[in-house]
Specification:
Layout lengths: L2 H15 L7 E5 L4 H13 L8 E8 L8 H10 L2 E6 L2 H8 L6 H18 L4 E3 L4 H15 L8 E4 L4 E4 L7 H11 L15 H15 L3 H10 L16
Parallel strand pairs: 1-2, 1-4, 2-3, 4-6
Antiparallel strand pairs: 5-6
């Protein structure tokens, strides 16, 4: 995928759901993976010409795993002229050494989000951008159906009333396959995930299930996506009606 296509899909989601307003300061949550680095490229590119002028910064919550080298991400942020902040934590040690969690993902996510929110507020941000893409949206829906018995997926925009921050997900129209293509085309400096349970989660199971379902019934991912965006999920925002000129 070329940068022009990425910018087009990202802007479409932003316009459809009104994700960026004039004067916003947006923190991009950077894990070091392909998704968050692609989102950084997208928002930095849009910043140059999007009619609603906004500020941008990048934040990484370092879980404290040894050998996790973030210097390539720092260099990329310098190249893109994006302010970069690393938040050091001992989340990894707490989960795996102290608590010895066998299923650490939910608690890890909660702790990471807390650290990210605190850093974003400290930097004067009013919004945080997550790099969830189209496949994440579908897989979250299936996770909810299979393990919770409800039809749900995350919204393009979520207001966090405890912090006053708004979470936005500008890449919900971008397929994971296109993210991979973008990473390869532009040689993004992806940092390997150091988490011991990476690739061994329920989400990974659902990812493989979705892939098989789409092979068995071609187009099923597109139908899943349509069901989510048009399925009246509780809290899902309406698309903005574009003004006719």
């Amino acid at each position: 995928m070329k940068i022009q296509r990425l910018l087009s899909l990202t802007r479409q989601a932003i316009d459809d759901y009104g994700l960026i307003g004039a004067g916003d300061k947006i923190a991009v949550g950077i894990s070091g993976g392909k998704d968050s680095l692609t989102l950084l490229y997208a928002l930095q590119g849009l910043q140059k010409f999007y009619p609603n002028k906004f500020d941008l910064c990048a934040i990484t919550v370092d879980l404290g795993f040894s050998g996790f080298d973030l210097s390539p991400v720092k260099s990329l942020c310098e190249e893109l002229s994006v302010e970069y902040t690393v938040v050091p934590t001992e989340i990894g040690k707490i989960l795996f050494d102290t608590r010895k969690e066998s299923n650490p993902c939910a608690l890890c996510a909660k702790m990471r989000k807390g650290a990210l929110n605190e850093a974003a507020i400290r930097l004067g941000c009013n919004k945080i951008a997550y790099a969830h893409h189209r496949d994440d949206l579908i897989e979250t829906m299936l996770l909810s159906l299979i393990y919770e018995g409800r039809f749900y997926s995350f919204s393009p925009e979520t207001f966090l009333d405890r912090t006053g921050l708004t979470v936005i997900r500008p890449m919900i129209y971008v397929n994971e396959a296109d993210v991979i293509g973008f990473k390869n085309r532009y040689q993004l400096p992806v940092c390997k995930n150091p988490c011991p349970v990476d690739g061994k989660t329920k989400r990974e199971y659902v990812k493989q299930l979705t892939r098989q379902l789409n092979l068995d019934a071609p187009g099923v991912k597109e139908r899943f996506f349509h069901a989510i965006t048009e399925g009246n999920i509780d809290g899902w925002p309406q698309k903005r009606i574009k003004e006719l000129i």
